[in-house]
Specification:
Helix content: 25-40%
Number of helices: 5
Largest sheet: 5 strands, mixed
Distance between the termini: 11 Å
Bound molecules: magnesium ion
Radius of gyration: 15 Å
Number of domains: 1
Number of strands: 7
Strand content: 25-35%
Structural class: alpha+beta
CATH architecture: 2-Layer Sandwich
């Protein structure tokens, strides 16, 4: 068994679509970023790369590389799954925390969980999504950004 941790934060910006775990969550702004800004998928991808001993997301999908401008983060997930397969590793489970003051995510957790499970080819019981606020503190608490954390476990195929 191998474990990995991932963290990411993106600023909220008007005129962007808010995507979390591949799910469109209606809000007045979305996450800025070179790609689609899906902070949760980025945290999961980083955790997977870490667990596999493969470095970090920036090494493969640099935010200065024009190839990834506007890219769907689910594509990063697909590429990461292919790298895991090559190393004969499969995902045992994924646990995540999304930290957002606004919008309230409680009603979206189920959809996000199903979407993350689908993207990474897992059963619904192998993905967990927790939603928290930042108690009004810092940029996340002020509603200027959304952060995400992920922990994953991999097993040898
Ligand atoms: Mg990111």
């Amino acid at each position: 068994m191998r474990v990995g941790i991932g963290y990411d934060i993106h600023a909220l910006k008007k005129g962007r679509k808010l995507l979390l775990g591949g799910v469109h969550v209606p809000h007045t702004s979305g996450l800025s970023g070179h790609s689609d800004g899906d902070v949760l998928l980025h945290a999961v991808v980083d955790a997977l790369l870490g667990a596999a001993g493969l470095g970090d997301i920036g090494e493969y999908f640099s935010d200065t590389d024009p190839r990834w401008k506007g890219a769907a983060s689910s594509f990063f997930a697909e590429r990461t799954l292919a790298m895991l397969k090559k190393k004969k590793l499969s995902i045992r489970n994924i646990d995540t925390v999304v930290i957002a003051e606004r919008p309230k995510l409680g009603g979206h957790k189920g959809n996000i969980q199903r979407s993350v499970a689908r993207i990474f080819g897992l059963g619904i019981g192998d993905v967990n999504v927790k939603a928290k606020t930042n108690e009004g503190l810092g940029p996340v608490g002020e509603g200027k950004a959304i952060a995400a954390m992920a922990v994953v476990a991999l097993q040898k195929i």
